[in-house]
Design a protein that fits this description.
Layout (H helix, E strand, L loop, with lengths): L4 H10 L5 H6 L7 H14 L7 H11 E6 L2 E7 L4 E7 L6 E4 L6 E3 L7 H4 L6 E11 L4 E8 H4 L3 H16 L5 E2 L6 E4 L9 E3 L3 E3 L2 H4 L12 E8 H4 L4 H9 L6 E10 L2 E15 L1
Parallel strand pairs: 3-6, 7-12
Antiparallel strand pairs: 1-2, 2-3, 4-11, 5-6, 6-7, 8-9, 9-10, 12-14, 13-14
Length: about 280
């Protein structure tokens, strides 16, 4: 059983669920709307939104996902022989996304120091397309959902690595300090004469919400309780099967689901434009 972003969008448009906390409170123990959002995204890709049999759901997940991660290391999900997915929950209409020690990514690379060994070994892979899933919520419900591929959103990794490496080199240039091995930017041992103080130097990355980054795109602006948007490169869209593309495009007969051919600014050179599919869905 394989899945992809078009399958997930079809499931979303066909059976939207916006009261996600109450939906999952009756099926699984959830600590809050953030946990419910992650479960919902998994279920959209696995088509298990209404599966009450936990054993059956685990079996389906095993067929669909090669990796489901932890809260401390990206990504949250990897589709078998498919994309990596990073889920972010924000409250507020367009609050920035906190990425913590992981800089924005156009793609996920297997040699990244920020991913786990389990993630590196879940498949035989070098790089994967990365889908950012950003959910705007209140305490109980999903208000807005964005699917944005990293190569439409973030610059090449060299842009971020240059800043990171310059900071690390600066730390190493300081004389008479003891540096410890770390995956963070640096850790200075025994800063003071007694040798009782350590200093951790961490990157705390954030990125503007897609709603703010792509505020120049024309939208339908239909008044609804829930709004969904997706941005995917035209060339990526064309790699999916004809069946999946046709199944999705048939939904455009729905007066609240739209598939548009637009252009966005290249994250590496805003003077250039990239052809994309821009999808919108309005519900409630």
């Amino acid at each position: 059983m394989s899945s992809n972003v078009l399958v997930a969008i079809k499931n979303l448009v066909t059976n939207p669920i916006i009261s996600i906390k109450s939906h999952y409170a009756g099926r699984n123990r959830v600590n809050g709307v953030g946990d419910a959002l992650e479960k919902y995204i998994k279920d959209l890709f696995a088509n298990t939104m209404f599966c009450d049999n936990e054993y059956e759901k685990i079996s389906i997940y095993n067929n669909v996902f090669s990796y489901t991660g932890n809260q401390n290391n990206p990504p949250d999900i990897i589709l078998k022989n498919g994309d990596a997915i990073e889920v972010k929950k924000v409250q507020g209409s367009a609050a920035s996304l906190a990425l913590n020690s992981s800089y924005p990514k156009d793609k996920l690379y297997s040699d990244s120091t920020m991913i786990t060994t389990k993630c590196k070994n879940c498949e035989n892979w070098d790089s994967k397309d990365l889908l950012y899933v950003v959910g705007n919520t209140d305490d109980t419900s999903l208000k807005e959902l964005w699917f944005v591929y990293g190569d439409c959103y973030a610059a090449d990794k060299e842009i971020y690595e240059r800043i990171k490496n310059t900071i690390v080199e600066g730390l190493h240039s300081i004389t008479d300090i003891e540096l410890a091995e770390t995956n963070e930017l640096g850790k200075v041992k025994k800063v003071d004469p007694l040798g009782i103080t350590d200093l951790r130097v961490r990157g705390m990355w954030s990125i503007f919400h897609p709603k703010k980054v792509f505020d120049y795109l024309p939208i339908q602006n239909i008044n609804s309780k829930f709004k969904f948007f997706c941005i995917i490169k035209e060339e990526k869209f064309e790699t999916f099967s004809d069946e999946d593309k046709q199944n999705l495009l048939k939904l455009a007969d729905n007066k609240r689901f739209f598939v548009n051919n637009l252009q966005i600014r290249n994250p590496n050179n805003p003077a250039e434009l990239i052809a994309v599919k821009f999808m919108e869905f309005y519900y409630g």
